[in-house]
Amino acid sequence: MSIVLDRSSPLPAVRSLRWWQCLLAGVLFGLALIFAFPPGGFALAGPLAIVPLVLVAARVGTAGPSGRLRRAALLVGLGALPSWAYLHAFIIDITAPGYPLLCLYLSAYPAVFVLLLGLWLRRIGPKAIGRRVPVALVAATLWVGMEVLRGEWLLGGYPWYYIGHPLIDYWPIAIAASGFGAIGVSLMAAMPAGLVAEHFCPGPVSRRIGSWAVAGLVCVGMPITGAMTRTPIDPPTQTTGTPATFRVGVIQTDVPQSNKGTGTGADRVERMLRWLDLTRQAAEPDAQGQRPGVIVWPETMFPATALNPEAVRVARENDLAYPLADGNRITIDNLVAVFTRQQAALNVPMIVGAIAIDGWTINVRPDGSIDDTFDGKFNSAMLIRGGQVEQTRYDKRRLAPFGETLPLVGAFPTLKRWIMAVGARGMTFELSEGTKNTRFELAANTPATATAAAPPATAPVVRVAAPICFEIAYPESCRSLAYERGQHAADLLINLSNDGWFGGYAVGRPGHMLLCRWRCVELGLPMVRSVNTGISGVIDARGRIIRTVVPMPAPTPARPGPDFTPQESFFVHDVPLNENARTLFGIIGDVTGWICVGLAAVWCVLLMVLRSSAVAERAPGG
């Protein structure tokens, strides 16, 4: 007697679920994310996060009416909502009206996943193609495809909280990112959940074997490929080529987001002099008489309206100034002059986060107020060398959605003004995107005997790429800075950032550091971070944190509040460049992610084209 698995006789294992079980699945998904991501520290909870979701899709999708699947998906989304609210509580201080909208938007992702996977199992599963295509492949690529769309495209992209991100410390797994990016690790992390879906779905043995084969190919083949294609750069020397190390001084500031860009002239001068004092300490020569090759300030921390020479000239011509407490005033060009004189005296190059304004025109009204226009206003990294702000600068190319730019509504001025008035008070959204992948070239180290009149002798040159703040979250943006025509165009990444947005919440800062670590693995390059309010530090080319300006905070998930106390400080570190490697990901980019998007699109097209009615199949004589 032979037994044939068939959808017309559902197995007892695929009985539908009750409403509270669907709600619980969403809660478990959210809790797994919380415990997987820092400061939770239970990395293996990441791959487990979507297991409850595939169970709901398998149980409800293969049993019961179609309306129950929609209700199940909705309950999953509601169950996930509190966890997204916890992870993004810092948004309340930025935009209280936008906070619930963001949480609802993110909660829609697990709900849509359950709905689509359940529909696949219901509509396509019984058909010939459904009995051939491994369910593990469908489930994993559907989830990862949705992660890519959320992270890279929809509403400007929000590439945080991929289920593979917490696995950074498991090098045999994380090395897959050298070939296939962090999204490739997410694909590996989604495969176990795909196998669970296969187990609970009736189907032929050949399909089950196919699911295990696909999972094995992905989970074993991707790390091996990543390791085999991670090619070390030619051994460096101290006389030619890239040096073995590059000494960097890092300044960490502590300006609350509410005070950033504000204050009287006295406040601005006091901040700058305080940070210049830290800079002087960082520039002190070591026992061998060597000073840093560069000193770095965080994103937009230069305390004037703009720092680029053209804007400073316009400010000088129009006598723009900040008031002092004693009734006097300090002009913008005088503030810049104090800064550049100090840099010239130290004679250590500096990369500073500042605003650049091109084509600035100022009209002074009769009442003394100012009306200004400009061709472009940029969030920039600027190089100051020999007491001069150089014309070469890097303008941030990918602005933070809803923090620096408003996706979709830029073409609708009235709608933009309404959104700014209701949910984004105090924000201007007037920054422009940069257009060039500018890199800085710096001498390896600065001897203590060097002066502006007698610069250091010819030394190895270090090429620096400086992705700014949220830009570090986008793999392709960083790759375009670090690689050109399949070759390294940079030897070091320097991330200027402002994490004051996170306030006193401990969740955001280590999460931002986690994304930086993945970029190092993907690109085979080390990174230095200079961050307002922290966490500043150094990451090696394998994604390991080797230095922080203060010890990493260690709050528990139960205490999301002000557990991290930032401080103004500095450190100097010899960043290792001898582990730099050329990676497959650096050459080909995020191909894996877009393949998953393509496959997810195929599954959705098949859902629309090959519709079947599960109710009709279960009807007598159907």
Q: Which features does this protein show?
A:
single chain; 622 residues; alpha+beta; Nitrilase/N-carbamoyl-D-aminoacid amidohydrolase; six-stranded mixed beta sheet; 18 helices; 22 strands; disordered N terminus; disordered C terminus
Any overview of this molecule?
- This protein is an alpha+beta fold.
- It has three domains: 247 residues, no CATH class; 317 residues, Nitrilase/N-carbamoyl-D-aminoacid amidohydrolase (4-Layer Sandwich); 34 residues, no CATH class.
- Helix content is 41%, strand content 16%.
- The chain contains 18 helices and 22 strands.
- The protein has a six-stranded mixed beta sheet with strand order 11-10-7-4-2-21. The protein has a six-stranded mixed beta sheet with strand order 12-14-17-18-19-20.
- β10 and β11 form a beta hairpin.
- α4 packs antiparallel against α5.
- The longest helix is centred in the N-terminal third of the chain and has 27 residues.
- The chain is globular.
- The two termini are 24 Å apart.
Note the beta-strand portion.
15-25%
- CATH class categorisation of the largest domain: Alpha Beta
Our count of helices gives: 18
Low-confidence stretches: 1-14, 235-240, 552-564, 612-622
Number of strands: 22
CATH superfamily of the largest domain: Carbon-nitrogen hydrolase
* Main β-sheet, spatial strand arrangement: 11-10-7-4-2-21
Sheet with the most strands? 6 strands, mixed
| Overall pLDDT metric | 86
Distance between the termini: 24 Å
Q: Indicate the CATH topology of the largest domain.
A: Nitrilase/N-carbamoyl-D-aminoacid amidohydrolase
Structural class, judged by helices and strands? alpha+beta
What Rg do the Cα atoms give?
27 Å
Number of domains: 3
Roughly what percent helix?
A: 40-55%
Shape: globular
* CATH architecture descriptor of the largest domain: 4-Layer Sandwich
